[in-house]
């Protein structure tokens, strides 16, 4: 993810949790300051989330919690 103002830096793989797939997080900055960016992808979903004023590690944990709350497998 990049545009004319900034790009995601320090991108690294993080644990996707029990639902599997691939999850990566990094950081960027914008008009509002620095923020973490995390995303996951698996066979049926792709999500990108931005977390202002949070660390990459904290953001990864929050995205795992969100995912486990909203995604289901039948």
Description:
The protein contains one helix and four strands. Strand 3 and strand 4 form a beta hairpin. It is α+β, with helices and mostly antiparallel strands and 74 residues long. It has one domain. The protein has a four-stranded antiparallel beta sheet, covered by helices on one side.
- Placed side by side, the strands forming the largest sheet appear as 1-2-3-4
Portion in beta strands: 35-45%
Number of helices: 1
Number of strand elements: 4
Name the assembly state.
single chain
Radius of gyration (Å) = 12 Å
The tally of structural domains comes to: 1
Query: What's the helix-strand series?
Result: EEEEH
Amino-to-carboxy terminus distance: 31 Å
User: What is the mean predicted local confidence, pLDDT?
Assistant: 88
Morphology call: elongated
Low-confidence stretches: none
Helix content: 10-25%
**Class computed from helices, strands and strand pairing:** alpha+beta
Main beta sheet: 4 strands, antiparallel
Question: Care to give the gist of this entry?
Answer:
With 74 residues, this protein is α+β, with helices and mostly antiparallel strands.
């Amino acid at each position: 993810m990049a545009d004319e103002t900034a790009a995601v830096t320090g991108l690294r793989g993080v644990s996707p949790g029990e639902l599997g797939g691939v999850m990566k997080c990094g950081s960027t900055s914008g008009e509002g300051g620095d923020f973490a960016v995390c995303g996951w992808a698996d066979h049926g979903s792709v999500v990108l989330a931005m977390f202002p004023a949070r660390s990459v590690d904290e953001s990864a944990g929050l995205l795992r919690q969100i995912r486990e709350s909203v995604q289901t497998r039948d």
